[in-house]
Amino acid sequence: MSFDIAKEFPWADEGVVYLNAAATGPHPARTVVELERWIKLRERPWEIALDEQFAVLAKSRRLSAGLIGADDSEIALTPNTSTGLNIAAQILPIERGKVILGYDGEFPANVYPWMAIDRRTAGTARYEQLGLLPNGLPDWDALPARLDRGDVGVLAISWVSFVSGDRADLETIGPMCRERGIRFVVDAIQGVGTTPLDVHKCRIDILSCGAQKWLLSPWGSGFCYIRHDLVQNLEPRTIGWLAMHGSEDFSNMLDYKLNYAEDARRFEVATIPYQDMAGMNASLELFGEIGLDVVSSKIHSLAGRLVAGIAAIKTLSLVTPVDPNRRAGIVSFNVENVEAVSKRLNDGGVSHSVRGGGVIRVAPHIYNTEQQIDRVLALLDG
What we know:
Strand order of the largest sheet: 2-8-7-6-5-3-4
Order of helices and strands: HEHHEHEHEHEHEEEHHHEEHEEEH
């Protein structure tokens, strides 16, 4: 790769094998510098110009939009994935008797907002989960028939499963929903940054993504994509004072007019954490310099190396699909004695995650190497 790994990730040569980007992505050095700069600015806030603050947010919207093929006007900045999913649950009209459909095994952030609608409407808008196949993966082949029953109003799924690493085929599912008049909501936190995405081509209505994992950005940074015509036709339920048209003109703040901004800023609730968004900008600029295609190729190559190696170890059982079109950066596998294997990895300096049911999850990124992957595989085969 063309960028200096040692400069951006100086710890990479310290014997640490960090395979936990699916939990928390480490900051590049440039991001640390930018965060420290903003912390110092807060020490002398009279030196911070309002134009500088708003410029940070405008840049965040532009960079976020560029990751997913959206327009800046379709991006609302959020502190996490949950906020964007709650925006979806709040603003999408759901007819009486319609089903909000998801899959079993979803991350809770993409379950509870929909369960709350079910409770609030006393079940007139039901939340329903499709079961998983015996191998723990969604039965995507059964989805069209379920959607054809005519009672689904919203399909809310993760692009990439946080447990199995299974990657949904959004380019197929999105048009399938659009043809049937079903709103399509995507939790994309485990996919954006690992794999190129075009939200318009995928016919996604609302997509939410925290930036603290694969995008190597601060906690408290993220974004929500809301399709342009939804922005124009739906109103926020949680109202921010900077969500109004012309609200950045502080000389006219008391001329109260409930006129929402014409773009997705109408769904933002101030105050946005400027320092976290500035840090996100620094990280996303690194992605831009390297090239998202290059980053994706590296992640998928390392994940593929893990998949092939784990499949060859008789004491392990892959959870993540072998098919490269069905996965992104997460690689998960079952072990009989998860505590012992996890301890072996920890003792070997390998950072990873343990999930329920005896699953170990690893997640490589651009700072990892093939040599590190082989070292991990040797530990697993130990």
